[in-house]
């Protein structure tokens, strides 16, 4: 496995980040992975490397690069209940400053950079994200329907932009919701909105999970939820990105 630190040009500057991809040369389908609000840290590197082991070039940007290089906020090795209020107090101003306009300007840079890498195969790209990164992933897919072939978002506030968010998406979609974030009635409402778009999608609540369940360095972590996340994500990418 190769892991490379990168500088990614955007319309507003240069985002730091990294890529993980298989050793041995060749070209691989590209996947843009948006971190959760806590940003790039060891658990994100581990997840990117695990995805790369399945044959993908995975690009992970520091979406809050305007505030400094990653890690933008000071994080403990494990975010427990006693740490959460302090960490969220540091993270929320960054999230609030990262407007829709900024997300879309940056997405253009990220996708352009990803597609231009020598190790990335021609064809559609995948976009995935966690927590607020899942919303950024959905916004990216909506803004680039001709370039994004797969969209996956986990414990993500995808309803924040209203029912119109998915109207321009052409990617195949998976949404994995935390049981603590979405009621069955709310899931039904969301899925009816998705039905109206004609998208090929799956959207489900992961049993027994709370917000942040994929992140092994937080108290929200749920091993069964993370396993199900891989069971949904990998087949989605395999059937949409050049048969990786």
Keywords:
alpha/beta; 244 residues; 6 helices; eight-stranded mixed β-sheet; 22% strand
Report low-confidence residues grouped into runs of 5 or more: none
Major sheet strand order: 1-2-4-3-5-6-7-8
Please state the average pLDDT score.
Answer: 96
Reported for the largest beta sheet, the result is:
8 strands, mixed
> SSE order in H/E notation?
EEEHEHHEHEEHEH
**Approximate shape:** globular
Sheet/helix structural class: alpha/beta
Please give the count of helices: 6
Detailed description of the structure:
This protein is of the alpha/beta class and 244 residues long. It is 36% helix and 22% strand. The protein is built from 6 helices and 8 strands, in the order βββαβααβαββαβα. An 8-stranded mixed beta sheet has the order 1-2-4-3-5-6-7-8, sandwiched between helices. Helix 4 links the parallel strand 5 (125-130) and strand 6 (148-154). Helix 3 (100-116) crosses helix 4 (132-143). The protein starts with a strand and ends with a helix.
